[in-house]
Design brief:
Molybdopterin biosynthesis moea protein, domain 2; rod-shaped; 135 residues; 2 domains; two-stranded antiparallel ribbon; two-stranded antiparallel sheet; alpha+beta
């Protein structure tokens, strides 16, 4: 009789541990799904060139915040016409009118750089939404 009670207790403990394991797996899979969804949304934002957190009419240009009213339509020298172009619309052969800067202010691409597919990908990788190119 004693061995019967021990066997029942062992069976109950095994069932309880199985239930806990299933519960933990379910919670973990929900976390993975949420994380995957967040990564997918961030990737879509990256592909579109959108920089999250800027919703005040400002955009990030070459690592700097620029309001639409601060753009005059000419480069800082005033000699060449330029335009702000979203990174998603850049084409190989476009020429930078201003430096593209990393977030910390160091130069990513110099003024006058002729853009290639590799350079455009670099801009996207660094979450730069727009740059100023010569017309």
């Amino acid at each position: 009789m004693n061995t019967l009670i021990i066997g029942e207790v062992v069976l109950i403990v095994i069932l309880f541990l199985l239930f806990v394991a299933i519960f933990l797996i379910k919670i973990q899979s929900q976390k993975v799904r949420m994380h995957t969804r967040r990564l997918r949304e961030e990737f879509e934002a990256y592909k579109s060139g959108y920089v999250s957190g800027i919703n005040t009419g400002q955009t990030r240009m070459a690592g700097q915040i620029v309001t639409p009213s601060s753009y005059t339509g000419t480069s800082s020298e005033g000699n060449r016409a330029s335009r702000i172009t979203p990174v998603t619309e850049l084409r190989p052969g476009d020429k930078l009118a201003k430096e593209a800067l990393y977030e910390n202010g160091t130069i990513l691409l110099n003024k006058g750089t002729i853009l290639t597919k590799h350079y455009i990908d670099k801009l996207r990788e660094n979450f730069i939404a727009e740059v100023e190119v010569e017309i």
